[in-house]
Amino acid sequence: MGKFTQKLVNAMKGYTFDDVLLIPQATEVEPKDVDVSTQITPRIKLNIPILSAAMDTVTEWEMAIAMAREGGLGVIHRNMTIEQQVEMVKRVKREETIEEVITISPEETIDYALFLMEREGIDGLPVIENGELVGIVTKTDITTREGQRVSDVMTRDVITAKENASIEEIMGLMIENNIDRVPIVNEEGKVVGIVTMGDLLARKKHRNAIRDEEGKLIVAAAVSPFDIKRALALDKADVDVIVVDTAHAHNLKAIKAMKEMRKKVDAEMIIGNIANPKAVDDLTFADAVKVGIGPGSICTTRIVAGVGVPQITAISMVADRAMEYGIRVIADGGIRYSGDIVKAIAAGADAVMLGNLLAGTKEAPGREITINGRKYKQYRGMGSLGAMMKG
Questions:
Q1: In a shared domain, residues 183 and 242
Q2: Which end of the chain is more exposed for a tag (fewer CB within 10 A), N or C?
Q3: What total of structural domains would you count in the chain?
């Protein structure tokens, strides 16, 4: 028997999602008691085992906020300038937070106040003079008063809350005084932030939200293995996780570049994609690895390049090796139904990355299209002509 024939004889059988089912067994666990939280890196624990894909029709700041609020993690795609991606990370970090307050002088114009609100995506500004809080101005105050000064329209008797005030205390102030935002002041009376009723309601509503040590929503962002400049900029913007995003992460030049990146950033690092346990041996510096070469619903890698491993088999092989190093595994691609998530986790994944299942949501950035009265959202692969022309 020749060596090529021998390859076929010795080839292992591969399985994908449609090839397997889980055998039902006896359980004492009620659905309401199920815990689906999962550790995906040493510092990041999710309340749901789901990440949104780093695709330009799946994850930008809106999706990242929604994912963090639900207990997952959004990975902002890299098909944009460094500055745009950094601003999206900052936008997520600003959501529901009392820090990084934007202020304005009473001598500024209404036009400038509107410009600031539009640029920062906020509805109100504390008015500061000589370091002291002298008022607050909102969009409601200035909608028909262009050309005037902030001092002409601002509310002067400002209700404030202490920096250590609880959500319940701040909400009580708002209800008692019929206001929808409260500046937060420190012991010296300096403004350190502003909280809106919307922020408080969001925190009460989203009990499963994942936040960092400062109380900000967590967020991830994708980078090329060779784009150290982007990685450093994102790290400086306090991104929680850097996802090194490449079609074939088991590339020796890429691995060398990623090792250097690992030394220079403080954020957790997820590396993908791989489909071979030997790749794990070369990526032991990663906090987690993403598994999947060509299983995605719109991915043509297996057709164009003729490479790949059936996804359930790839997950199990990589998970066995990753366990030896304490590295987490994220299954990326091929998940079309909720049951596929369960199968991926049963095969060894700590979490899954979703593209197709999230692309049609309100938070996805894909262009909305109406065909025969039905609404659709654009969804495309990052190797598609449209995505490459945009980037």
A1: no
A2: N
A3: 2
Residue 2 lies in a domain: no
Q: Please say if the pLDDT value at position 6 is more than 90.
A: no
First to last CA, the chain: 50
Answer yes or no: do 321 and 239 share one domain. Answer: yes
Q: What is the DSSP code string of 134-200?
A: EEEEEHHHHTT-TTSBHHHH-B-S---EETT--HHHHHHHHHHHT-SEEEEE-TTS-EEEEEEHHHH
User: Which CATH number goes with the domain that contains 328?
Assistant: 3.20.20.70
Distance, CA of 256 to CA of 197 (rounded, Å): 48
- The reply to whether 221 and 285 lie within a common domain is yes
pLDDT digits (tens, 9 = 90+) for 31-58: 999 999 999 999 999 999 999 999 999 9
Contact 109, 150 (CB under 8 A): yes
Residues 189 and 73 reside in one and the same domain: no
Are residues 227 and 82 both part of a single domain? yes
Instruction: Average the pLDDT over 222-250 and give the result.
Output: 97
Judge whether 3 lies within some domain.
no
Query: DSSP 3-state assignment of 276?
Result: coil
- Angle at the Cα of 356 (from 87 to 241), degrees rounded to 5? 35
Q: In this predicted model, what pLDDT tens digit does every residue of 243-280 receive, in sequence order?
A: 999 999 999 999 999 999 999 999 999 999 999 999 99
Residue 147 region by backbone torsions, left for phi larger than 0, else alpha for psi between -120 and 50, else beta: left
Q: Is the pLDDT of residue 99 over 60?
A: no
**Parent domain of 139:** 110-197
* Residue 114 clears pLDDT 70, i.e. is over it: yes
Answer yes or no: do 224 and 314 share one domain.
Answer: yes
**Does the N-terminal peptide bond of residue 177 adopt cis geometry, omega within 30 degrees of 0?**
no
**Residue 26 and residue 162 in one domain:** no
